[in-house]
């Protein structure tokens, strides 16, 4: 009798244990491909341990990932992205670049390789990956390479939005962001940075995500305008301690009738119209009243007023206006660095009147600085 009870108990324990393991693997480890939102024929993949988006990935397993519980935070919504064909290797950021690296067991690696799944910044039916230790930055692609960037423009949001393509029936559910009235940049605190961001939004120089727009609605009327900016200013200056959107239990003073004041004509506010350009890692030089900015990937732009910008070049390509025969003139550098792009350009004018451009090309962990000039 005792033996039968013991056997039954052991059998029951085995069934329960196997059920727990099955449930855990089906709900916390998701094998998936990560599809770009604005390049739906491209997927996140690793190539020579760099992280990028590509189409027609060969071998296909280079674009297959396991979304596992976050190495630094195993709470719901946090994941780490492990390679299927390189187990133990994860996507992690370093100097805001994404690469595939082996888990070295350090807390820094765990934090750099942990991301929070949030509603897609460009489309809430998709997802975005928010950095665990840099919560104002998200995984996005730029020139097909993956980076960890702060998201400002509409294009940024599209580049930072992805779709999980998985055969699993359960996928991680994005955690809705909390609403903190007044916290326009969603960094968990309310300060002058939020005031500046909201002011730029009202001047139409930037766009805001849905989450940030909800936070900016300080009076709770469903619209974001100068009234919300005024309440935010009063809150930062400690004139008020509660936003109208949060309610106020203090008694309201009884209004008294006062003679109507004669309205004073006011000048309409000037609303500047900005024209944006894209220059990564910028360096600015001013000459003859014109500002020129140059950055990575031979991106180049100019302006006379710092408001209306003109994009002159945006990529390293044959026929570009800066170095038309770039691949011929810099062949030795490209061959040495085994790359097809240039990083962090800079221009100075020396006493001889010529302008010199410095740039960086990288071979693994060994930087190569080169120089070219023009009159």
TrEMBL record:
<dbReference type="GO" id="GO:0046556">
    <property type="term" value="F:alpha-L-arabinofuranosidase activity"/>
</dbReference>
<comment type="pathway">
    <text>Glycan metabolism; L-arabinan degradation.</text>
</comment>
<dbReference type="Pfam" id="PF04616">
    <property type="entry name" value="Glyco_hydro_43"/>
</dbReference>
<comment type="similarity">
    <text>Belongs to the glycosyl hydrolase 43 family.</text>
</comment>
<dbReference type="InterPro" id="IPR018247">
    <property type="entry name" value="EF_Hand_1_Ca_BS"/>
</dbReference>
<dbReference type="GO" id="GO:0000272">
    <property type="term" value="P:polysaccharide catabolic process"/>
</dbReference>
<keyword id="KW-0326">Glycosidase</keyword>
<dbReference type="Pfam" id="PF00404">
    <property type="entry name" value="Dockerin_1"/>
</dbReference>
<dbReference type="Pfam" id="PF05270">
    <property type="entry name" value="AbfB"/>
</dbReference>
<dbReference type="InterPro" id="IPR036195">
    <property type="entry name" value="AbfB_ABD_sf"/>
</dbReference>
<feature type="domain" description="Dockerin">
    <location>
        <begin position="177"/>
        <end position="245"/>
    </location>
</feature>
<dbReference type="InterPro" id="IPR036439">
    <property type="entry name" value="Dockerin_dom_sf"/>
</dbReference>
<dbReference type="InterPro" id="IPR023296">
    <property type="entry name" value="Glyco_hydro_beta-prop_sf"/>
</dbReference>
<dbReference type="InterPro" id="IPR050727">
    <property type="entry name" value="GH43_arabinanases"/>
</dbReference>
<dbReference type="GO" id="GO:0046373">
    <property type="term" value="P:L-arabinose metabolic process"/>
</dbReference>
<dbReference type="InterPro" id="IPR006710">
    <property type="entry name" value="Glyco_hydro_43"/>
</dbReference>
<protein>
    <recommendedName>
        <fullName>Dockerin domain-containing protein</fullName>
    </recommendedName>
</protein>
<feature type="compositionally biased region" description="Low complexity">
    <location>
        <begin position="255"/>
        <end position="267"/>
    </location>
</feature>
<dbReference type="InterPro" id="IPR002105">
    <property type="entry name" value="Dockerin_1_rpt"/>
</dbReference>
<feature type="region of interest" description="Disordered">
    <location>
        <begin position="247"/>
        <end position="267"/>
    </location>
</feature>
<dbReference type="InterPro" id="IPR007934">
    <property type="entry name" value="AbfB_ABD"/>
</dbReference>
<keyword id="KW-0378">Hydrolase</keyword>
<dbReference type="InterPro" id="IPR016134">
    <property type="entry name" value="Dockerin_dom"/>
</dbReference>
